[in-house]
Design a protein that fits this description.
Layout lengths: L2 E4 L8 E10 L3 E6 L2 E2 L5 E4 L8 E9 L2 E4 L11 E4 L5 E2 L7 E11 L3 E12 L4 E2 L5 E3 L5 E4 L8 E5 L2 E5 L5 E12 L6 E6 L4 E9 L5 E4 L6 E4 L5 E8 L9 E7 L7 H21 L3 H21 L1
Parallel strand pairs: 1-8, 9-12, 10-19
Antiparallel strand pairs: 1-5, 2-3, 2-4, 2-6, 6-7, 10-11, 11-17, 13-16, 14-17, 15-16, 18-23, 19-22, 20-23, 21-22
Helix pairs in contact: 1-2
């Protein structure tokens, strides 16, 4: 089988790289690549490629700071694949593009952390590719646990110090990028988090998984309304969509009120564990067993009643 890649003729002599991903149960993942240059017609051909469902291919080509790529594909025993890559003019200045974004931010309070998921859909409606040069999101104090999903495309977020940077190639069309992170939960009832935003965010939705009595506020956003997530969880939802003539959203500050704090349950559980240890020590060391066992069992029963009634 073979793959044939084609660019515009004016891009002859460009290096084209078919990446190969082999996935098997026995060997796991193995990545390799080949390389070739386009001819005067903007074409390059690769022969003697492996076929079957264990092998997938993705053709990439670099042009200035941009990298263009095909969707992944497989090859069959008796047929090849023709790949057409469009290469566009490139700029690092977002003001020279027709780029806009929609975003979703989800926050989930947990026992020890607040878990955040951040997703942006980047729309490039022009004919110029945008390669971000110095686009960074300022993160909340104490953020940790950054994670960005792996993607076949190069559009991505990376963490650098106390910021998260937007990188990659945003050619005409749609591109999805996301990341997650955590902020320690200090068990305050009211908390606030501030994040800056990438440029040209036209719409942003904020969702907080909530217990009863919790509130969500975001400056300049609609009033948060209760709803149910697909899994049935209770959530609070607010959003903002820019109107014509309004200034950009440069940052957001979201506040959670009425966040559940730990009750006495954890301390009672610790006391129960300690009583169990003491009871074991009493048995091991001997002594007046009957009265000691009765007293210890009485303490455990009382503690259990308090725990179940908490």
């Amino acid at each position: 089988p073979r793959a044939q890649a084609r660019q515009d003729p004016e891009h002859h002599g460009a290096e084209v790289r078919p990446g190969v991903l082999k996935q098997t149960v026995a060997e796991g993942e193995k990545r390799t690549h080949r390389s070739g240059k386009t001819n005067a017609d903007g074409m390059v051909r690769f022969d003697r490629l492996e076929y079957g469902t264990d092998y997938s291919y993705r053709v990439t080509v670099k042009s200035d700071p941009a990298e263009y790529a095909s969707d992944p594909f497989n090859l069959g025993r008796d047929f090849g694949q023709r790949v057409l890559l469009h290469v566009y003019p490139v700029t690092t200045d977002v003001a020279r593009t027709m780029v806009g974004m929609r975003g979703i931010l989800v926050v989930e309070p947990r026992d020890d952390v607040f878990q955040f998921q951040v997703m942006f859909r980047v729309f490039n409606m022009g004919r110029i590719t945008w390669v971000p040069n110095d686009i960074a999101i300022d993160m909340p104090d104490g953020f940790k646990g950054f994670n960005a999903p792996e993607s076949m495309a190069d559009a991505r977020f990376v963490a650098e110090g106390d910021q998260v940077r937007l990188l990659g190639t945003y050619s005409p069309g749609e591109h999805d990028v996301s990341f997650s992170f955590q902020v320690p939960n200090d068990h305050d009832e009211d908390v606030a988090f501030r994040l800056s935003l990438p440029p040209h965010v036209a719409e942003l939705r904020v969702i907080a998984e909530s217990a009863r009595g919790m509130g969500l506020e975001v400056d300049d956003f609609e009033r948060a309304e209760p709803s149910n997530a697909p899994g049935g969880q209770r959530v609070l939802v607010t959003a903002r969509r820019l109107r014509q003539g309004e200034p950009e959203m440069r940052s957001i500050t979201l506040r959670l009120t009425g966040v559940p704090t730990p009750g006495p349950g954890r301390w009672i559980a610790a006391a129960l564990a300690a009583l169990g240890v003491l009871a074991g020590l009493g048995v091991a060391l001997g002594g007046p067993r009957a009265s000691s066992e009765r007293a210890t069992q009485q303490d455990v029963d009382q503690a259990r009643e308090v725990l179940l009634g908490a």
